[in-house]
Amino acid sequence: MKTEIVWVDREDMDDGMLRRAGEILREGGLVAFPTETVYGLGADALNEEAAGKIYAAKGRPSDNPLIIHIADWEALEGVVREVPEVAVRLSEAFWPGPLTMIFHKRDCVPYGTTGGLDTVAVRMPSDEIARELIRQGGGYVAAPSANRSGRPSPTAAQHVYEDMEGRIPLILDGGEVEIGLESTIVDLTEGCPVVLRPGFISLEMLKGVIGEVKMDQGLLRSDDVARPKAPGMKYRHYAPRAELKIVEGTQEGVVSYINKKVQEDSDTGIICTEETRAFYPAGHVKCIGSRKDVRSIAHHLFGILREFDEDGVSRIYSESFDSPGLGQAIMNRLLKAAGHQKILVKEKDTQEEM
Ligand code: TXA
Ligand code: MG
User: Fold this and answer.
1) pLDDT of residue 225 exceeding 80
2) For residues 117 and 104, what is the distance between their CA atoms, to the nearest angstrom?
């Protein structure tokens, strides 16, 4: 199958092209498209066979459920059994936008879309290309991130092409995405709302709207005591080919530790910030953004992990970005990419592996 990439101008959308893309979806095919978080790989969510093609194209385990994307508020009731009051308030605050909510599903939603679960994840993206495609495609588009399973999520159409060439007919190219990390997921199917995946909408932002919200315990630890509830969060993810370790401590201690590692082997990758760039004289140094603008760090993370794969380095050391709010989502992805390998630099020369 030949994979076509077509540029779509948000300011002046080509109706003919979006109609064609919508037709592919309605006929049971796959289309990759931009959203404000990451690129998605879309299929008709109510067509079990179409959803099945997503799993095949991604190489995704079949127990890992898909998020249904809608373009209008009214569409929600078509796929969920009830809309709790908290969902109304959260959607007023954050939809359209990077928030996914989990509800009890209606019978019309096939188990092939929900990975066999009786619950369903729903999100209304804000990206105009995504919204128009959803409308043209019949109103319900199941879409995971458009990467091959295990690879970093795509934040540009070229990333999708790298992973999906020959597997899907069409990629809508809307340029680089805005946020660069996948949506926040909140489960509303049990008493207290629970965050199953941190994202741009932080725990604090959610609490500001609905009061009590908990963080899934399985997200906070790397052992097997508590497993993450979102099936997708248990898999090793976003993994670069090189071994990645996160280094935590004072700025001076971290810089000195990483430089020592580069002296041992110059074929080492470094993920640093604008604040520390000048302190790394050797190695494959990549600046992820500025600590003064955490959004820039989120925006570049997945792209940088992909770049290291092209560079072919054998190991990567990253500074740590453990700040409240968006920093939590960044660390969640980085820790997964690192297989939870974190080094705590206590003083200049003594460090402990965690
Ligand atoms: O920002 C996003 O959410 C992007 C864009 C394309 O919208 N999509 C995305 O989808 O990240 P995906 O498939 O890569 O991640 C969906 C996550 C998985 O971890 C999955 O296990 C979880 O959502 N999930 C989906 N339905 C669920 C359900 N019913 N219960 C628990 N977790 C669910
Ligand atoms: Mg994904």
Assistant:
1) no
2) 9
User: What is the predicted pLDDT for the residue at 226?
Assistant: 67
Contact by Cβ (8 Å): 3, 169: yes
Residue 21 has pLDDT above 60, yes or no: yes
Classified as helix, coil or strand, 270 is strand
Q: What is the pTM of this model?
A: 0.95
> Which of 93-97, 181-185, 227-231 is predicted with the least confidence, judged by mean pLDDT?
227-231
**Separation of 330 CA from ligand 2 center, angstroms?**
14
**Which residues are registered as beta bridge partners of 41?**
32
**Cα separation, 78 vs 97, whole angstroms:** 20
The pLDDT tens digits for 289-316 are 999 999 999 999 999 999 999 898 999 9
Pocket lining for ligand 1, CB < 6 angstroms: 35, 37-38, 40, 64-67, 100, 102, 114, 117, 119-121, 123, 125, 143-145, 182-183, 185, 196-197, 229-233
| pLDDT surpasses 70 at 132 | yes
Residue 180 contacts residue 301 (beta carbons within 8 Å): yes
**What spacing in Å lies between the alpha carbon of 170 and ligand 1's midpoint?**
22
171 and 107 in contact (C-beta within 8 Å)? no
Alpha carbon 116 to chain centroid, angstroms: 22
68 DSSP β-pair partners: 122, 142
Residue 18 to residue 42: CA distance in whole angstroms:
13
Bridge partners (DSSP) listed for residue 104: 119
